[in-house]
Amino acid sequence: MKKVLPFILFIALSATTFAQNSPKAKALLDDVYNKVKSYDNIEVAFKYALENTEANTKSETKGNATMQGEKYRVNLFGATQLFDGAKVYTIVPDNEEVTIDDKSEEEDTITPSKMLTFYREGHNYKWDILQNVQGRKIQYVKLTPIDTYSDIKSILLGIDAETKHIYKVIETGKNGTKTTITVNSFKTNQPLSKSLFTFDQAKYEDEGYYIIKN
Q1: Where are the alpha helices (DSSP H) in 17-106?
Q2: Sequence ranges of the domains in the chain
Q3: How far apart are CA 138 and CA 135, in angstroms?
Q4: pLDDT by residue (tens digit) across 106-127?
């Protein structure tokens, strides 16, 4: 749970921009980015599926994330990850354990605060298929990591053509593993608790949690 979402796991960022890519794909990705950045906060509920045909394994689970600026709170795999703007807290109730990491350890990975904007850098991209999903037109853009040493073969980014919200991310690894994130609910500008992104260390110490500071 230290790196909670596939968005956290799968891409190292580079400073490469949108040069020499599909103009239609660039325009759509720009629309998605501008839409996301216009919101004060975003709440998403999603399904996470992992499949490896070679190993004959498949698993599914559900999660949710709340983001405001760089701050985020994610619930997945029975654990919670919280970033308050300075430190990352991973809370695992089953182990009665909290791990605290500095933000610097997350700077070169995709955090939840970047999960809806990761495509801005580090990829070549092209226009892909259009699907009809229960009356919604989902336009896919295929992303290929520029870093040839990346473990990722490709990423399909499915975008709702009307709302310009990300609906699905399908990551295919070079090892044959396919990770799929499907957004089931996308809410914006919700009233949030002032303590949502605050970690109360005393509370967890009182409950007997083991606090690990990296």
Answers
A1: 23-37
A2: 6-213
A3: 9
A4: 444 444 545 566 666 778 889 9
Integer Rg of the chain from CA = 18
The tokens describing 151, both together, are 């473990």
pLDDT in tens, 42-74: 999 999 898 987 778 889 999 999 989 888 999
Q: Supply 125's token pair.
A: 């991209």
Q: Dihedral of CA 132/126/107/101: which sign?
A: positive
| Residues contacting 195, CB < 8 A, separation 6+ | none
CATH number of 6-213: 2.50.20.10
Residue 24: other Cβ atoms inside 10 A: 12
Strand order in the sheet with 166-173: 123-133, 136-145, 152-160, 166-173, 177-188, 42-52, 57-68, 71-76, 79-83, 87-92, 97-102, 210-213
Distance CA 185, CA 174 (A): 30
Does this model's pTM top 0.85? My answer is no
Cα–Cα nearest to 145, from 133, 155, 157: 155
